[in-house]
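name: query_chain
kind: protein
chains: 1
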Amino acid sequence: MGASVLALVLTLSVSVGQTSNSIQQEEIDYQNEVFLRWWESELVWTFDDLPAEGQVPDYRVPYSGHDYPDRAGGTINVLKKYDRAFHRGERVRFEQPPEPPTNGGRRRIFALRPETRFGGLASAFEYKDTTSFTEPTSGRRGLFGIRRVTNETPHWHGHCNGWTAAAIRHAEPQINVTRNGVVFTPADIKGLLAEIYMYRDNEFLGGEDDAMNPGLLHVVLANWLGRGDQPVGIETAVGKEKWNYPLYAFKTSSNKVSDREIEVRMNAAYSQSTRREVDRSQHLKKTIHFHYNLHLDEEGAVVGGGYFNDSARLDMLWTPLHPVQGGTEGNDRGNPHIDVKEVLAIWRESVSKNLRDKWWNIDPTEEDAIGVEVEDTSESEPTDE
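structure:
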């Protein structure tokens, strides 16, 4: 009797708080259209037809890159090097804005003037971009630890989406590349890649204001990663903060509750960010655990689901598109002083052709498109023999 009661309690503990929702029809239509556009194949929704696991080839595992926090200047150090190589002698004046009033809005007795600086075109743009947004932040300061509110750049602002996109679309740079007498190390090249993807529009693969519907999560990962061996970007924080990483493997186990309900556990692996950029990153693997029920229609297609209390949640899934020049459509807020084609040429020079020739992406640039040989199955013309 005691064991039965304990089992019941444990079951209730993970079930309480489970919410069940249907996938919105407009979301279904959109994901169907997106998958068909990039894969020229139908998105599979039937549970029994979906793979239970998926993983990219070993060479395709995204490298662990740095997220370049705005508080530390973002990518400004490598952009100074870029300016030396490509904007030599071109400098721009910019001002660091004065610190706003503190102490409940009381005006300072002595106003601080903006700090005038001079920098290269690309690095000056990055400086302005990483310092342009602040918000009230509470913390203890001073000898006596008095709590004060100051305006600061949020701690989570950085380039996590930039390095995530770069690590999905590009093999980790391997050798130094020289341009106009300036040597760009593999670490530098990764910084340039993170910058050109920073504000690039991405392909949205599902997510809502709250946690992403587990039914859509299951279908998208099973199709893009399970069927297509394509890593995807994940945004792990549900809410205001944004933390992006490249996810490259998943594995599920399932239990059939009924003809219309499946209980699923999923472990998914993604590459974690590093504290600083280095020439050859040590891969940092992190596993995220999901536990959810899937709801099926009468034909066995996934139509929704709900999470259990012991499950992680995601804000959204996405996949990066090919980079375009900053300041143009699709990358409106991007740095206009970095030549995207030049950065990609530097990357290509840093990676072996053998690796580039098998690195497949959706929406490739013309230079990085991989030809697919199609077997000729047509019948030969009859001869007169």
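note: The chain has nine helices and 15 strands.
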